[in-house]
Amino acid sequence: DIPLARAVETDPLPLAFTELPAAAAVSVGNPHVVFFVLDVDEPPLARIAEEVLADPLLVDGANISLVAAEERDARGRARLLRMRVFERGVGPTPSCGSAAVAAAAVAHRRGLVSDMVAVRQPGGQLGVTRDAQGHFWLAGPTALVARGLLAAELLEDAAEVAGEVPA
Is 56 exposed, middle or buried (0-12, 13-18, 19+ CB in 10 A)? Predict the structure, then answer.
């Protein structure tokens, strides 16, 4: 479950934003709002995300994804989910593993995909598999995108917020 201002169904999620087909909310450890569209390149992702994130229903925000189900098999299920992601607090991002799993989970729940699906984002392609117990597994390449240093004070502050005592 994702943190919401009130108890509601999460698929479809009753958002004030109505420019796209109804979204679904899902948590894979962090909150996601997933919109299925025909073309992920056309809608202005940043503007849509800003409007959706302004909805008072989403009390802690969420990652926002635009997803297109493509390359259908003989049974009509998509073999590929193409998507773009707006990460809360970050903005548009080239790749997001949790968003790939969230999109696959919603697509599976809606009967759009089988237990295995490829997920293509601007940063590359991942594979998501649902096992017999209903767990989703993510596979794909990794890439270093940044190096940096954190001040010790930041780690102490984060530990304090989390209620942990730093070593």
Answer: exposed
- Polymer length of the chain: 167
The pLDDT tens digits for 6-47 are: 999 999 999 999 999 999 999 999 999 999 999 999 899 999
How many helices (H) and strands (E) in the chain? 3, 8
CA nearest to 82, candidates 115, 51, 112? 112
Q: Do the bridges between strand 91-93 and strand 31-36 make them parallel or antiparallel, or are there none, so unpaired?
A: unpaired
* pTM score: 0.85
- Tell me the one-letter amino acid at 65: S
43 touches 74 (CB < 8 A): no
* Domain boundary assignment for the chain: 24-162
CA distances from 111 to 63, 69, 105 (A): 22, 11, 10
Provide the CATH topology of domain 24-162.
Diaminopimelate Epimerase; Chain A, domain 1 (3.10.310)
Comparing CA positions, the residue from 20, 67, 79, 18 lying closest to residue 40 is 67
C-beta of residue 70 within 8 angstroms of C-beta of residue 52 = no
